[in-house]
Amino acid sequence: MVVLTIIGARPQFIKAAVVSNAFQTRNIEEFLVHTGQHFDENMSKVFFDEMGTVEPQANLGVSGGMHGKMTGEMLVEIEEIILEQQPDWVLVYGDTNSTLAGSLAASKLNVPCAHVEAGLRSDNRKMPEEINRILTDHASDLLFAPTKIAHNRLLTEGIPEKKIVRTGDVMLDAAITFGEIAIAKSTIASDLNLNGQRFALCTLHRAENVDDAKILDWIFGELNDLSKEIPLILPVHPRTKAKLKEFGLLEKISPQIKLIDPVGFLDVLALQSSSSLIVTDSGGMQKEAFFQKKPCVTVRSETEWKELLDGGHNRLAKPLTNCIKDKAKEALEANLDWSIDLYGDGRSSETIADSLLKKTGDLSFFSSPRRESGSITSRAGRAISRPQ
């Protein structure tokens, strides 16, 4: 069996690393495609290097520009690779433009597509990621839902039960796999003179937060207030750095907020483990905070990880509305239950690999008709459609 994997952003590199390991132990052949969506070396190459994963066989070099341009260029390139490689599956992760481009290319060519992290919904269609999630789920043949809430959401949207597999979360696999390595190898805490010190880890990158001068100014005003209570470490995303410069906000940032360059996953794990609190607008970081048993404040109006709100492990600070410092105080003082099972047992990657193997041999699973005319044949004998 051959799986063509599409990745392009930091969280996808991490998730693909543990799933690729599961593929290798089952002799599943994988062709890895990096779209180039995260092109900065600190946001891309460092992750492959430190996790010891195989470099992608193809790098499309597509980054920047408007959503349509980026997604369209990826779609063109991925389509050609699918025709060349003739995979049995196209595997996509998450909710980026790379995700959408991969699922559309596979669907148009009659190649089965599987989506990791299916069924997540923030219910905010102003977010590009929300549109990507919905379209990818409904274009895919096999949907790997990380949680019960995600599984049920897919059912309510009319997706057949047989297409859904509740896997748990592959990021828990990654946290377990790489957590011990991070403790052994990462020196970032000592490099930043953090050993034994109380601090909050902060990340910000979402367009709705950093592209709006008023909102970004408000966020850093709130972080300045929070830093009077607890110092912050903030690895600065390239997008955020550019906007801070553009809006003239760098000089307003408190010296108690230490800005550092983006760091690799092992250093992220080490910082999370050493921190007392996490403040973020990242979907993935919300879960990683839970894995590390750290309270989290998310600077957004909503979240796709609703189960974290239910237990109080995560609290929303709506931009221009809620006080981040107050939410942080609530989070730090809360008596939280970290023993609840939200994301599985850390073997999600194995479930994904086994499900792909099982479904490949199940001809009844592919009972839905697709276009047959003008097609070529995949390595497993399925028709790959060419446009007429």
Strand order across the largest sheet = 3-2-1-4-5-6-7
Q: Output the CATH class name of the largest domain.
A: Alpha Beta
Q: What's the CATH H-level superfamily name of the largest domain?
A: Glycogen Phosphorylase B
Q: Could you tell me how far the N terminus lies from the C terminus, measured between alpha carbons in angstroms? A: 28 Å
Rg over CA atoms, rounded to whole Å, is 21 Å
Number of separate strands:
15
Total separate domains: 2
Structural class: alpha/beta
CATH architecture of the largest domain: 3-Layer(aba) Sandwich
| Beta-strand residue percentage | 5-15%
Q: What is the approximate shape? A: globular
The largest pleated sheet is described as: 7 strands, parallel
Q: Determine the CATH topology of the largest domain.
A: Rossmann fold
Q: Quick gist of this model?
A:
With 388 residues, the chain is α/β, with parallel strands linked by helices.
Description:
This protein is of the alpha/beta class. The chain folds into two domains: 2-169 and 344-385, Glycogen Phosphorylase B (Rossmann fold); 173-333, Glycogen Phosphorylase B (Rossmann fold, 3-Layer(aba) Sandwich). Helix content is 44%, strand content 15%. The protein contains 16 helices and 15 strands. The chain has helices at residues 10-25, 45-51, 67-85, 97-108, 128-139, 148-156, 170-185, 188-191, 207-210, 213-227, 238-246, 265-274, 283-291, 306-310, 324-333, 348-360; strands spanning 2-7, 29-34, 58-59, 89-93, 113-116, 142-145, 164-166, 200-203, 232-235, 257-260, 277-280, 296-298, 314-316, 375-377, 383-385. A seven-stranded parallel beta sheet has the order 3-2-1-4-5-6-7, sandwiched between helices. Helix 1 (10-25) crosses helix 7, helix 3 (67-85) crosses helix 4 (97-108) and helix 7 (170-185) crosses helix 12. The protein starts with a strand and ends with a strand.
